[in-house]
Amino acid sequence: MLAGFLGSGKTTLLNHLLRNSLDVRIGVIVNDFGSVGVDAMLVGGQAGGVASLGNGCLCCEVGEQGVGPLLEQLADPASGIEVIVIEASGIAEPGALVQLVLGCDVPGLTFGGLVEVVDVAEFEETRRRHPSLDRHVGFADLLVLNKIDRVDPEVLARVRELCRAANADAPMVATSHAVVDPGLLFDIHVEPGRQLMLGQAVDHDEHLHTHYDAVTFRTDRPLDPRCFAAFFDDRPAGAYRIKGFAYFGVTGHRQRFVVHAVGRYLRFDRTSWPRGEPRETALEIIGSDLDRALLDKTLRDCERDEPADEDSILPVIRYTFS
């Protein structure tokens, strides 16, 4: 199972795993918080099988009746799938998720452990807002300290100390871009008696999703890149995680732009449009106390009837790495 706070790099890790485990057929269950299903779309086509549970928190709103049949389907010997990875939403409760999976009686299925992805660049600030992250780290069988390329050694050392204080036993792997040896992820030791420990530790009243909401924005009109980049420079209060796809239609830059924003960080990746998929912008904005009307108006102001001029793409290219 793959968990971690919003924008920590879970989907990046999962994609790395799928690309670099060519001799293993992997099934994936993706739980997006919101209705766009960005993460499921990003892994689709690479996995041996993908099941998406969107618009809810897997640990509470879907329930065993939702995840149990999916596990049975992916674990069916006829599927040829050897490993199943569950990617939880960024505000799920890892302890409850593990308890949920352990409660599913699926023949031939063995729980392999919980991988918690930690965003070292944002962890200290996020932990101040959400002290329950210590509990999430404490549940992990493996801690992936991600985005070390974005911090200096002193910050990494502090995050290591905080994680070790919360979890005295789990191995730690420090990495950039969520690059982890797949062999390590397939060989995680699970402590005996773990189900009882998790059952005692989970407090549903403290779930992070009670503090967060998701706003969806869609349009098939091209966006003005300058206006869109300015939106991120001065984004409305509470918008912590923004992900999705942007359509600009600018001459020479007609690719699909994948949007990744976490806290102060922003990145665009360029990919081809899947065959038959409409050219549109689809964004999921996750945060607390979101002003839906303001978010919608600010983004609608970026719409155009015709694509902007070619130079308009420059503010976006500044944050583009592929």
Describe the protein's architecture and organization.
- The chain has helices at residues 10-19, 38-43, 58-62, 64-75, 94-102, 123-129, 133-139, 153-166, 182-185, 194-201, 225-233, 292-300, 314-317; strands spanning 2-4, 26-30, 49-52, 83-87, 115-119, 142-146, 172-174, 213-219, 239-246, 256-262, 265-271, 281-287.
- The chain is α/β, with parallel strands linked by helices and 322 residues long.
- The chain has two domains: 2-209, P-loop containing nucleotide triphosphate hydrolases (Rossmann fold, 3-Layer(aba) Sandwich), CATH 3.40.50; 212-317, 2-Layer Sandwich (Hypothetical Protein Yjia, Chain: A,domain 2), CATH 3.30.1220.
- The strands form three sheets. It has a five-stranded antiparallel beta sheet, with helices on one face. It has a four-stranded parallel beta sheet with strand order 1-5-6-7, covered by helices on one side.
- α2 (38-43) links the parallel β2 (26-30) and β3.
- The radius of gyration is 20 Å and the shape is globular.
- Residues 33-48, 53-64 and 192-207 have low confidence and may be disordered.
